[in-house]
Amino acid sequence: MSHLSPSQTSHFPLYLAPMEDVTDPAFRMLCKRFGADRVYTEFVNADALVRDVASTTRKLQISEDERPVAIQIYGREAESMVQAAKIVEQAQPDFIDINFGCPVKKVAGKGAGAGLLRDVPKMLQITKAVVKAVQLPVTVKTRLGWNDEEKIIVDLAEALQDCGIKELAIHGRTRSQMYRGEADWELIGQVKNNPRMHIPIIGNGDVTTPERAYECFQKYNVDAIMIGRATFGNPWIFEDIRHYLETHEHYPERSMRWCMDILKEHVEASIQWIGDERKGIVHSRRHFANSPVLKGLFDFKQTRIDLLRADSKQEVFQIMDFIVDKWG
Known about the structure:
With 328 residues, the protein is an alpha/beta fold. It has helices at residues 6-9, 25-33, 46-50, 54-57, 78-90, 105-108, 120-133, 153-162, 185-192, 210-220, 237-247, 256-274, 277-288, 301-309, 313-327; strands at residues 14-16, 38-45, 69-74, 95-100, 138-143, 167-171, 201-204, 224-227.
């Protein structure tokens, strides 16, 4: 097991953001293959982990091939977060990441995730307790603040650093924004360029193109970039961005057949991971139905509907082959 700082992984570190129902082992391994320097698990509910809920403990499954890997936990009480962190430590990830950024109501509305942006003393209490309880490096992912009137990230970053965390990832939106509007990288840059900050700062939000990734590294001086929704149906985005950062040229265009083969591979891996064909297809649907390679195809609407309705591997693959024949 290795604890790698951003500078040790690559000159321009690119991380796969933790996303519920997305960053399972099947998808993490695909992104790793295409150059993700670090991957994160789906977030793990601390209370459910302490109660030994099977669907939650399953999220702790990591492999040597995906290192460095972080397991992310969330909760609203220091006691359960400490217990969960100790359980996670036994799974031997490279990092334990604390989620203080999830904006969805069922998490933030109950005082966990981004909900703790409304109770900073409690957020810091949880962070200190977790850092003290484990030997592994502890990192945090959060947002700019609760809303436009409370963008507290510059001061909050210093306070989290004082708790002993090793890195801070910042999504450039407030909780109130959810995923609307544009990510504010200026504030991320303020945190990174604060002379009192000495831990690595990871920027997250709206990095969808190689050009934008390059701009974020150059303009805001972040130590790494975390990519989330732009990876849907597009695990090779890491390869595209890496190629551009290192050569200032775009990666050669891939064929539709090649892209469909990768998406098929993901469907196969999802089915194997979940252990049920239909559930595996439903689970991977957001990827193969929303892949950027399918955007802008003429007269594609009905085919996309068919793809979303297909619930057998044979049917999905037949539609993918039809796409290649018609639009490839």
